[in-house]
Please model this.
Amino acid sequence: VRLALPKGHMEKNIFKLLDDAGIKLNITTRGYRPTISIPGFEVKLLKPQNIVEMLNLGSRDIGFTGTDLIAELGATNVTNLLDTGMDKIKLVAAAPEALFKGDEFIGLETVRGTRKLRVATEYTHLTQQWMTKKGFNPENSLLVHSRGATEVFPPEDADIIVDNCATGNTLKANRLLIIDEMIQSTTCIYAHKGLVDAAQENDREALAKKQAIDKFVTLLKSVLDAYQHAVLEFNAPASSLDEIVKALPAMRRPTIAPLHGDSKWFAVKSAVHKSVLFSLIPKIKEHGGVDIIAFDLKQVVH
Model:
């Protein structure tokens, strides 16, 4: 299985995900072909943009890249196997504060009669689509391919930028306001569509690869699910056990057992989503729960 791993901003989270799944990589200082602890897998490090291209061509079987890049490069010969939810970004159009009147962007009116409105971006395909949708045309606007550090173009070199945004801090630092949000993106695992199609047609080599890929994806999904959950353990009095259990979420049902030698108290264990811990723990306390412990999980396989 020819696996493409991303270099750059996606690298840290994806390498941690692999490590948390018990998958070991051995990367040399300048090496682009690390070894991996999964038998039958061959790895290459590539830029996320190149991963899209290689997956689309079929020279890589699976790889990690962003949904924004899939859309930008128009890759149609790929299949999304798993959304990791990592590296969340928005693709936004933004402009300097001076080109706004209240909440309204007045950039076209500001430059009309003197020059064309300049729009800088690395996402030329998606930006051209957006410009057409918004009524920008070759007579009143010009698309500039920025090739990096797009946020520094305004105000002298561009009136609008289209760039990815995670926290919005970079836009604020450069006194840029958002005009429009175009798409949201996360890092996903994609496969070459030809491989998936061939496996469905029972091609022996493709089927063997797809089975290995499915195991790989299941392993990573179990870790991603574990990131979202915690095990909650506590002791509860028999008198309020029913009330506590009613308020207690669980994957199926909580595990409940009487404490040794004490019929008035029960030990309760449940796997819950981390988002509910903030409100759930005080409820348990209110109903007499004590000795509350919450701890992380390593993997969750449904």
